[in-house]
Each structure stands twice: as C-alpha cells, then as structure tokens.
Amino acid sequence: MRKRKGWFALIFIVFVFCGCSNQNEANEFYSHDGAIVAESADVAVEGEVETSFTGIQGVADNDRMVAYQSYVTIETQNYRMLHDKIEARALELGGYLIESHQSEFEEGTLVGTIVLRIPEQAFQSFVNFVKETDGKVVEHSTHGTDVTEEYVDIEARLKAKKVVEQRLLTFMEQADDTENLLKISTELAKVQEEMEQLIGRKNVLKNQVALSTITISIQEVSVGTSSIQNESLQTWERSKKLFIDTINTCLFFFSSFVVFLIGLSPVFIPVFLVIFFLILYKKKKKGGSIDFKGKK
C-alpha cells in the first residue's frame, strides 16, 4: 500500500514538473515583450537577404523586368482624325486610354495630349505606327526603368514575412494568457499589414512592366502657316544674311587687292617707272622728228 502511494506521489510530481516546464516554455514564447517573436523575425530577415541576393544574381539579361515609357510630339493638319486613328490602333493591340485632354486656339486649330497603356509585346510596333502616321514627328524619346532588383527583393521579403506570420499563428494557438495573446495579435497584425503593402507594390511593378506607357502630344497646324512658313520662307532673315554676305565678299576682295598691291610693290614700282620713262622717251623722240620734217 505504501509502495502504491509512493508511486502515485511520484507520478503526481512528474506531472506537476512537466506542467510547469510546459508553462515555462510557453511563457518563453511571449516573455520580454515579444523577444522570441523578434528572434524569429531576425532569422527570417537573414534568409530573406540571402534569397534576394541569390535571386538577383540568377536573373538572365533577357528575363529582366523593364518598365518602358515613351513621349512623342506630332504636328498634323487634322487633329481629330489623327487622335481617333491612334486610339483605335491602341485598342486593337489590347491597350487602353487613361488620359486625354485638348484645347482650341483662336484661329481654330487644336492641341491636346493623350496617354495610353500598351501591352509590352506590342509597345515598339505601336511607337513605330505613331511615327509613321500622316503627322510630322517633332520630338520623340523612350526610356526604360529596370525594376528587376526591387521585384526580386519584394518576393524575398514576402517569403520571410510569411514565415514570421506562420510562427506567430503557432504561438497564438499555444498561448493561454490574455496579455501574451494581445501582444502576439498586435505583432501579427503588423506583419500582415507589411505583407499587404509588399503585395501591393509587387502588383504595381508587374503592371508597369506588362503595360508600357506612351504620352502623345498632338499639335494641329494650318496649311501655309505656323512651322511651314518658319521653315521654308524666312524672307527677312534670308535677306539680312545675303546683304551681310555681299558686304563681306566685297570687303574680302578689296582687302585682297590692297594686300596684293602692297605685297608686290617692290616689283611694280620699278616696272612702272621703267614703262613711264620709256613712254616719255618715245613721246619726246616722236615730237623731235615731227619738228625736223616741218623745217624741211
């Protein structure tokens, strides 16, 4: 009988010890204001950094994520026709219009801007279509933003946040204290909010890459006015230029002539003197012969 009581006492002590041990382990999960939670987050962040670095290194050049944007300025004689033609082509390629505005000048010409989103695979062909329209391309530029590194980093952070979220859910199931449960709930809500922000940014990057943006400014011009006259006539400017060129040419020839005379004066002066004296001598000789015949 004593032995049985002894065994029961021993078993009771073992159960009490195990219960205290489990309670201590559970308390360790939530003690020190979430120290264990922080430790879990730190471990997850380490894995996140390694995964992000490895992921970026493994991305091939042709698999990089690039968001393209293009800007085109066009002059045309018919604003509405060109506007409708460009918008219709964008819809055919699976794109859509996100912004359009226009204004009218006193002379009746229109000017406006349209912003379109075009699928990445059709972006370059659409840009070429716009440049080959009836209008005149005044300005064109295209640039891309590489978002590969940011995208891979977001994916790695999401994986880490999911690990932390799963650990917090496990801790919540084991929690038997209201205070600790509130701490875990607060930390879990914070992690889930950060995950939502990362998911939102990830979707934005995917959308920017999948659909390129092109901004087209259209300026309507009248026949015989605006840039046509500025480029082909310019009567006053051309007249001034011709007048100045003529004066410069005359000054150049005059200057060259003076330089020529001064430079060759050592030759010209003696030659001139010789010719002068010869002419004078001939005149005198001729005059003397006439007088002699007269006397005869």
UniProtKB/TrEMBL annotation:
<keyword id="KW-0472">Membrane</keyword>
<keyword id="KW-0175">Coiled coil</keyword>
<feature type="signal peptide">
    <location>
        <begin position="1"/>
        <end position="26"/>
    </location>
</feature>
<keyword id="KW-0732">Signal</keyword>
<feature type="domain" description="DUF4349">
    <location>
        <begin position="64"/>
        <end position="277"/>
    </location>
</feature>
<keyword id="KW-1133">Transmembrane helix</keyword>
<protein>
    <recommendedName>
        <fullName>DUF4349 domain-containing protein</fullName>
    </recommendedName>
</protein>
<feature type="transmembrane region" description="Helical">
    <location>
        <begin position="251"/>
        <end position="281"/>
    </location>
</feature>
<dbReference type="InterPro" id="IPR025645">
    <property type="entry name" value="DUF4349"/>
</dbReference>
<keyword id="KW-0812">Transmembrane</keyword>
<dbReference type="Pfam" id="PF14257">
    <property type="entry name" value="DUF4349"/>
</dbReference>
<feature type="coiled-coil region">
    <location>
        <begin position="181"/>
        <end position="208"/>
    </location>
</feature>
